[in-house]
Amino acid sequence: MKYFSIILLVVISGCSSQSFSDGVEDQVLESVTGKDFSRNAAQCPLIKSQCSDGNYEEWPLKNGQTGCACN
After folding, report:
1. Longest pairwise C-alpha distance within the chain
2. 61 lies in a domain?
3. Does residue 1 sit in helix, strand or coil?
4. Is 3 inside a domain boundary?
5. Contact indicator for 69, 30 with CB cutoff of 8 Å
6. Are 36 and 69 in contact (CB under 8 A)?
7. Full pLDDT tens readout for the chain, 71 residues
8. Could you give the number of structural domains in the chain?
9. Does residue 64 belong to any structural domain of this protein?
10. Partner of 56 for a Cys bridge, out of 42, 51, 62, 64, CB 3.0 to 4.6 A?
11. How far is CA 5 from CA 11, 14, 15, 55, 68, in A?
């Protein structure tokens, strides 16, 4: 089961439009701030739908993607 989890993580990160390091940074920021945050445009609709108590924001990134957060 441990190897399955590692393989799944590698496959998912390989198919992502966001780099692995950006994903790790996003998770750290979410943990520290307690806010939903992403630099992956594919995750923004989910964050927006879950942002009922906060202020949802989107912004363009240097790489042409969209960043978003629920503050």
Report:
1. 39
2. yes
3. coil
4. no
5. no
6. yes
7. 555 555 555 555 555 555 676 667 767 766 676 677 788 888 899 999 998 888 999 999 888 889 898 98
8. 1
9. yes
10. 51
11. 10, 14, 16, 34, 28
DSSP structure string for 9-65: HHHHHHT-SS-HHHHHHHHHHHHHH-SEEES-GGGHHHHHHH-SSS-EEEEE-TTS-
> Tokens standing for 61?
């990134």
Q: Token pair for residue 23? A: 């994903």
Q: What pLDDT, on a 0 to 100 scale, did the predictor assign at position 33?
A: 65
Q: What is the residue type of 22?
A: D
Distance CA 44, CA 42 (A): 6
| Residue 51, token pair as written in the block | 């942002």
Contact 71, 35 (CB under 8 A): yes
Range of the domain at 47: 20-70
Look at the block and give the residue holding tokens 């198919």.
Answer: 15
